[in-house]
Amino acid sequence: PRLLLSLGGFALLLLPPGAAEFSPSLDSDFTFTLPAGRKECFYQPMRKDASLELEYQVLDGAGLDVDFHLLSPKGETLVFDERKSDGVHTVETEDGDYMFCFDNTFSTISEKVIFFELILDNMGEDGQEQEDWKKYVTGTDLLDMKLEDILESINSVKARLSKSVQIQTLLRAFEARDRNIQESNFDRVNFWSMVNLGVMVVVSAVQVYMLKSLFEDKRKSRT
After folding, report:
1. pLDDT the model gives residue 220
2. Hey, what's the signal peptide range on this chain (predicted)?
3. How confident is the model at residue 131, as a pLDDT?
């Protein structure tokens, strides 16, 4: 049986291990942990003459790299990134399910934290909304601004707001990756500082012992 879960404002359909499917959405982002030696694949249903834009980043994990595959509904490889930390890809789509996979099988120890965002354009909803608006465009000759102009302005504001949300999401992803790197560097500096301190204490103790041994009177007292 399949289980439908709601995550981050969109639906995630659990399939057999290593696969998942998203319900249609104009803009979706997701962050997940990819274990070492594992490969995770996701499916996105698309319409003909639509546009699929996918952006991904590796936020945490040794090397900050992952293999990425994007396949068409016919099983053709459209994109293949090998050992990349981030990527942006846009494809014109046809009817069917597009599959994209993140592959961490080359790593046997380190898991990866991966963020990706899907941006879908020309999915048919905007066109239907415009057709609905046109039903009300009658007798507007006496208006200074026609309803078509209002609709155009609304669509322009909507597009800019969507772009702003997208940029903010990417900035949060960059900030998360930089924070993980800084925390890793902080732990590394603390570790080696403690090692150096331990070496200094040992060297100091050895030097004190050697100096004391130089000034000790080792001659035996005569009776």
Report:
1. 54
2. 1-20
3. 54
* CATH for 23-123 (3.40.50.150, 3.40.50.2300, 2.60.120.680, 3.90.1640.10): 2.60.120.680
pLDDT in tens, 120-130: 887 765 555 55
Q: What are phi and psi of 41, to 5 degrees?
A: -125, 145
Residue 93, Ramachandran bin (φ over 0: left; ψ between -120 and 50: alpha; else beta): beta
pLDDT score recorded for residue 61: 86
pTM (whole model) above 0.85: no
Is residue 17 within 8 Å of residue 38, measured between CB atoms?
A: no
Distance of CA 2 to the CA centre of its chain: 26
Which residue(s) pair with 86 in the sheet? 57
Per-residue H/E/C for the chain = CCEEEEECCEEEEECCCCEEEECCCCEEEEEEEECCCCEEEEEEEECCCCEEEEEEEEEECHHHCEEEEEECCCCCEEEEEEEECEEEEEEECCCEEEEEEEECCCCCCCCEEEEEEEEEECCCHHHHHHHHHHCCCCCCCCCCCCHHHHHHHHHHHHHHHHHHHHHHHHHHHHHHHHHHHHHHHHHHHHHHHHHHHHHHHHHHHHHHHHHHHHHCCCCCCCC
Domain residue extents for the chain:
23-123, 156-216
Joined tokens for residue 143: 């208006």
Model pLDDT, residue 170: 76
Nearest CA to 55 out of 39, 79, 76 is that of 79
